[in-house]
Specification:
This protein is an alpha+beta fold. It has a single domain, classed as 7,8-Dihydro-6-hydroxymethylpterin-pyrophosphokinase HPPK (Alpha-Beta Plaits, 2-Layer Sandwich). It contains four helices and seven strands; from the N terminus they run βαβββαβββαα. Strands 1, 2, 3, 4 and 5 form a five-stranded antiparallel beta sheet that branches. β6 and β7 form a beta hairpin. α1 crosses α2 and α3 packs antiparallel against α4. The longest helix has 14 residues. The radius of gyration is 15 Å and the shape is globular.
Length: 167
């Protein structure tokens, strides 16, 4: 079983119900158990598209699935929540439910379908804060910094480059 952190976000419809739907959906995935879910935070959207605020959380799960099977499971949960299919989505647009694999153990993957660790997690307070609620000591396998250290950099307005150094 691999320890995985999944980002959860919603800014359309009953956002709290969508967060709960994500928890239930994760618990229903084969070979996957929800360990715990962070507190939920309301945050402003990121990107150029005008839209309402998000509710964000992070789930810690253990899974026997490989990363791509987990990704398929997350896509199914999103679709059940009414998320627009990938081919019709507006980049940076509003979402009923958004589920992202943030960390998959200490694996580093890069493909057209999936990049792990999530390529922008180290820049996003709305990812790092709930992740720190669960385990501030977990280490980003590329940047070689704890998520607590990354959160401190974001909160202090410092940018972390790909090599893990202040930029």
């Amino acid at each position: 079983m691999t320890r995985v952190f999944v980002g959860i976000g919603s800014n359309v419809g009953d956002r709290q119900a969508h967060i709960e739907r994500a928890r239930q959906g994760l618990a229903g995935l084969a070979q996957t158990q929800v360990v715990r879910i962070s507190d939920v935070y309301e945050t402003e959207p990121v990107g150029p598209v005008p839209q309402g605020p998000f509710l964000n959380a992070v789930a810690e799960v253990t899974t026997g699935l490989d990363p791509f099977d987990l990704l398929d499971g997350l896509a199914s949960i999103e679709q059940e929540a009414g998320r627009t299919p990938v081919e019709r989505r507006q980049k940076w647009g509003p979402r009923t439910l958004d589920l992202d694999i943030l960390l998959f153990g200490d694996r580093v993957l890069s493909s057209d379908e999936l990049v792990v660790p999530h390529p922008m997690m180290h820049e996003r307070w709305f990812v790092l804060k709930p992740l720190c609620d669960l385990d501030a000591g977990v280490v980003h396998p590329v940047l070689e910094m704890t998520v607590g250290e990354l959160l401190a950099h974001v909160e202090n307005g410092r940018h972390i480059g790909k090599a893990g150094h202040d930029g």
